[in-house]
Amino acid sequence: MERNDNSFLESLSSMTPEQAGYDSSQHKKRRIGKDSVIRAILAFVFLGIFVFSAGTIAKRYIDDRRELGAYEEITLADSALKPLHHSTTPDDLLSLYNSINLVVDNNTVQGSQDTNYDDPARFSKYRSALIALKAKYPDVYAWIVVTGTNIDYPVVKGETNDTYIRTDYKGNPANGGSIFVDYKMSDKYSNNLNTVVYGHNMTGGNMFRAIRNWFESANRNSTAETMRIEIYTEDALYVYTPFSAYRSDGTDFTKVSFPSYEEYVSYLDTIRSRSIIPCSLPYDSSSKIATLVTCTNNHSNTKERYVLHCLLTQVVKY
User: Is residue 17 included in any domain, yes or no?
Assistant: First the structure.
């Protein structure tokens, strides 16, 4: 009996699927059918991802062009200056102020004007453009230019620091927002000890992207020597020179009021000690600074910022 059982098992193992009554063609059809469905689903998913990505890129491009157009509109006006140029790497930074003699008196910094201007009328052009823009958009506060870069924008001041973070100077929604000062700034510009200015680090090159490019450039230190930050107001042009630069995920660089001159000097000592750029400019309790702030776009530390402190070295009265 045992022998017959073994013979039966052996005969079964030697049989082909067809001899056993199994139709393999039906199995293949089912398998091919399942594979086709899976491939179709995957193709549909990938197509959806592609369409979504293409749509997102197209929308971003359209939004960027629209936002840039809003600024070209004012820089191309008769009362304004040349159109925004698109260089975002400050290789050869041009300065209108090649020789600066500091005179500190009663909390006011003044200097001898350099007569080597690109355009003798540029100050009045900026002032006219600023006044005309402010008449239409009351939140316009100043105009900022960083020599050798494409930073050439009106500056606004909102009720809070969120007002213009995704809104252009006209009040329209904009991914790039506006260049804006901290809402705690005095309405009278000359009263500010630390003028804090914010701008997005836009990958398209606009807003404060040039700060990031300068910060990460190989010639950062040499260009800092000739870079000038010009802030035009209705009353005067305030000229600043890079004083300290660093990355920070803190908030103390936005401090704008100080209980005493001693604490203010201590603050200047602290931010100077953090700097990764050399600077030998003297400072004391009568010094004033401007602080430019933009995101590092560091996804592992979303609070991190590029911080550029600049020392006021000249005031040009109109």
Answer: no
> Could you tell me how far CA 21 lies from the centroid of its own chain?
72
The full DSSP string for 191-206 is G-SEEEEE--B-TTS-
Write the CA distances from 314 to 273, 290, 310, integer angstroms.
23, 13, 12
CATH number of the domain where residue 124 is located: 2.40.260.10
| All residues at 6 or more sequence positions from 230 whose CB lies less than 8 Å from its CB, including other chains | 96, 144, 145, 146, 147, 237, 238, 239, 240
Q: How many domains does the chain have?
A: 1
Q: Which residues of 93-132 are buried (b: 16+ CB within 10 A; e: fewer)?
A: bebbbeebebeeeeeebbbebeeeeeeeebbebbbbbbeb
Give the tens place of pLDDT for each residue, 47-64: 767 666 555 555 555 555
Q: What is the DSSP string of 204-233?
A: TS-BTHHHHHHHHSTTHHHHHHH--EEEE-
Q: Which domain holds residue 172?
A: 82-317
Range with the poorest average pLDDT among 23-32, 210-219, 284-293: 23-32
User: What is the pTM assigned to this prediction?
Assistant: 0.70
